[in-house]
Amino acid sequence: MAIKRQKDVWTNEINDIIRGACGGFLFGIPLLYTMEVWWIGSLAKPQLMMMAIALMFIVVYLLNQIEGFRKRRYSWLAHQAAMDTVEAIAIGLACSTFVLLLLRELTPETSLKESLGKIIFESVPFAIGVALANQLLGDTRNSNAEGQEPDQANRITNKKGDELNATFADLSATLIGATVIAFNIAPTDEIAMLAAAASPPWELAMIATSLLISYGIVFQAGFSDQQKRRRQKGIFQRPSSETIMSYLVSLLAGAFMLWFFQKLTFSDPWTMWLDHTLMLGLPATIGGAAGRLAI
User: For the purposes of burial, counting CB atoms within 10 Å of the CB of 238, is it exposed (0-12), middle (13-18) or buried (19 or more)?
Assistant: First the structure.
C-alpha cells in the first residue's frame, strides 16, 4: 500500500509538471519567435535580470494563489504557493532554454551573460503560462468520465456523428488554431533568420519536439476532456495517428501563411519551403493542439 501511494505521488507530480510545461508552451511560444526579446535579453544588465526574476516571482506567486498548475490546490498555504512558484519558474526556465537551444539562439559560442539574459526574459511568459495551466483549458483528467458508465460515454461520443464528421471537426479545429498562431508569426523576419541557421539534424529535432508537445497538450497534460478525446471515434483518432495528422495539417497552415505574406513564392526551391515551414511548424502545431482542445 505504501509503495502504491508513493508511486501515485510521483505519477501525480510528473503529470503536474507535464501540465505546467504544456501551459507554458501554450502561453509563451509566440514570444520565443520575437527577435526584440532576444536582443533585450542579450543586452540586459545583471540588475535588470534580477528585477525581471523578482517581478516574475511576484506575478507567478499571485497566480498560484488563484489556481496554479496542480490538480489539488492549497492556496491558503503561503509556503505551498511559494514552493509552486519556484517550481513554475524552474519549469519556465527549462522550457525556454530548451526551445532557445532548438532554435539555435543559444549555442556554445554564446556568452554566459547573453545566454542568461535571453533565458530569463524568455522564461517570463513561460512561467506565467505554467501558473495559468489549469485556467487556460482546465484540468479535467479525473472529471471527464466520473459518474459515467462506459456505455454512457460511448453514447455521448456516438451522438457527435460518424467517424468522418469527427475527423473533419478535428482537422478543422487544428487548421483554425494553427492558422491563428501562424498568422501572427509568419509575416516576421524571425522565420527566415531561424531557417538560415537550421541544419537537418536540428530540423529533425524540431519535428520530434513539435509532435511530442502536441501529444502532451492533447493527450497527457489533463486539459479539457482528455479522456473523452481518447474514446472519440474517427479515421485518425488514435493518439499517435491523430498527432501526426494534426502536425501535417499545421505544417500546411504554416506554409500557406508564409505564401500569403509573400515570405515564400512558388519560384523558391523546395528546400527553402521545407526549412521555413518546419521553423513555423512548432508554434503552428501548438496552436493546432489548442484548437483541438477547444472543440
Answer: exposed
